[in-house]
Amino acid sequence: MAAVRTFSLPHYPDYPIQVALFKDVKNATFLRSQLLEANADFDYAFIDATMILTPLHLLHPTFLSLHLALSTPPRLKSRTPHSEIIFRLHPNNNIGESYRKFGITDTTTSLIAVKLSLTPEITSESVAKHLGDVVEGTSVEIGENGEQLGEMCQVSKIRKVYKLGDGGKPKGKKGVVNGDADVDERKQMESVILGIMSVKGT
Amino acid sequence: MASIPTPGPEYTTHILPAPFTSSPLTLLAQGAEALVYRTTFLTPNTPCILKYRPPKPYRHPILDKRLTRARLLAEARVLVKCRRDGVKVPAVLGLDADQGWLVLEWVEGGNVRSTLDRWVKEGGQFEKLGESSKDGENKDVWEFMRAIGTSVGKVHDIGVCHGDLTTSNLMVKTTEGHGQAQPQKPSAPAQPYLTGDIILIDFGLATQTVQDEDRAVDLYVLERAFAATHPGAESLFQEVLRAYGESYRGGRAVLKKLEDVRLRGRKRSMLG
């Protein structure tokens, strides 16, 4: 069994989101091959945990994907709601590129798995059981607010993908000594990234 | 004809698109183009602003869709650009241009208009603000004006013109925090309400331009708005302009241009 945290988005309470976090994953190659074969049992969004800055950074594309999948007619640009999550994370419109940057690669060791409960059969138990069986890694418990989701991130990699440079960095606050600087910087980055993801491809 | 009941404005209800159709929303303001609600987004404790541009029944549906889409996108792009370049504006949290909604970060605080009103209510008098008071007891209000000038300068510096600068579209962010409204204790000491980040809001008419003309018109509109909401505050507004002129290269040229604009009015082309 893997530890699964269920998130519920405001405005979409009927479609909870199951999220699991793993570290020291050893069978990334296998998981990736299942994705490439489009094995229906492996219909998850497998995301490289080093690319997720904050919980909101993950919930935003998830919301968008759900929103687009549920509108009539569905407005997804990729094949499934789960692939749409990965696609929406990337700032440009290339799905392959999105998978290379944010999706699971052969060298991935920390992994976030997202499953949308689009049908009632998908519950946190079923997801936990299946993921516990197939992912070889250490399951990490996610807190109620998902704080753990940003703990493995590599800020420099994220900065590069979104071409942030120094943008979003608080300026003239060098004298901060109480350790809030990092939190503040992440908040600034997060708000820029959410904006970039919102206006992408429009 | 008289038998057809015509609903008054108070009966006009807008049906919001999914997923907001049946959500609890609080209407905060309504303009000619958009409705502004307060709600939550992504997590139940992230307060946010929902800006919805309802379809206009008198326009052709296709044209209406295109106009709504174009205007919403323009606004969102400008906001993201500002945020990227470090200008203090509400962050864009979500967007659906086809359905006409935009979700923005919640800014806690009041606008400049109400802040100045409060200052007057608490005994401030515009007429008594001489040059000598800048370091005295009224230091705060001068500092406040300089902050406004610098903020406007910053926006112009990155190549954005707001298009509708008024005292209501400038917010003063009061609490640093996560937006949850803290219960105000009546016995709490008076907060320094004049100090706080100046946040520009409502970029619905914003354009990306670097022309002095457009920048000067922005300032002119703000000047007129100041004169309308706070008559007698001319001397204070001069401080806004002074800070603006010093805030970025090219600020002085804009102030020169402003003199021309004052003489002829907002519209150069006399069209529309």
Automatic annotation (TrEMBL), chain A:
It is found in: Nucleus. InterPro entries: CGI121/TPRKB, CGI121/TPRKB_sf. The keyword tRNA processing applies. It comes from the Eukaryota. GO terms for biological process: tRNA threonylcarbamoyladenosine modification. GO terms for cellular component: cytosol; EKC/KEOPS complex; nucleus. Keywords: Nucleus, tRNA processing. The keyword Nucleus applies. Its main location: nucleus. Signal peptide: none annotated. Pfam families: CGI-121. Belongs to the CGI121/TPRKB family. PANTHER family: CGI-121 FAMILY MEMBER (PTHR15840), EKC_KEOPS COMPLEX SUBUNIT TPRKB (PTHR15840:SF10). Component of the EKC/KEOPS complex that is required for the formation of a threonylcarbamoyl group on adenosine at position 37 (t(6)A37) in tRNAs that read codons beginning with adenine. The complex is probably involved in the transfer of the threonylcarbamoyl moiety of threonylcarbamoyl-AMP (TC-AMP) to the N6 group of A37. CGI121 acts as an allosteric effector that regulates the t(6)A activity of the complex. The EKC/KEOPS complex also promotes both telomere uncapping and telomere elongation. The complex is required for efficient recruitment of transcriptional coactivators. This is EKC/KEOPS complex subunit CGI121. It comes from Pleomassaria siparia CBS 279.74.
From TrEMBL, chain B:
Gene3D superfamilies: Phosphorylase Kinase, domain 1, Transferase(Phosphotransferase) domain 1. GO terms for molecular function: ATP binding; hydrolase activity; protein serine/threonine kinase activity. The keyword Cytoplasm applies. GO terms for cellular component: chromosome, telomeric region; cytosol; EKC/KEOPS complex; nucleus. It is found in: Chromosome, Telomere; Cytoplasm; Nucleus. Its main location: nucleus. Keywords: Activator, ATP-binding, Chromosome, Cytoplasm, Hydrolase, Kinase, Nucleotide-binding, Nucleus, Phosphoprotein, Serine/threonine-protein kinase, Telomere, Transcription, Transcription regulation, Transferase, tRNA processing. Transmembrane segments: none annotated. SUPFAM superfamilies: Protein kinase-like (PK-like) (SSF56112). Residues 22-272 form the Protein kinase domain. InterPro entries: Kinase-like_dom_sf, Prot_kinase_dom, Tyr_kinase_AS. Component of the EKC/KEOPS complex that is required for the formation of a threonylcarbamoyl group on adenosine at position 37 (t(6)A37) in tRNAs that read codons beginning with adenine. The complex is probably involved in the transfer of the threonylcarbamoyl moiety of threonylcarbamoyl-AMP (TC-AMP) to the N6 group of A37. BUD32 has ATPase activity in the context of the EKC/KEOPS complex and likely plays a supporting role to the catalytic subunit KAE1. The EKC/KEOPS complex also promotes both telomere uncapping and telomere elongation. Belongs to the protein kinase superfamily. BUD32 family. Component of the EKC/KEOPS complex composed of at least BUD32, CGI121, GON7, KAE1 and PCC1; the whole complex dimerizes. This is EKC/KEOPS complex subunit BUD32. It comes from Pleomassaria siparia CBS 279.74. The lineage of its organism: Eukaryota, Fungi, Dikarya, Ascomycota, Pezizomycotina.
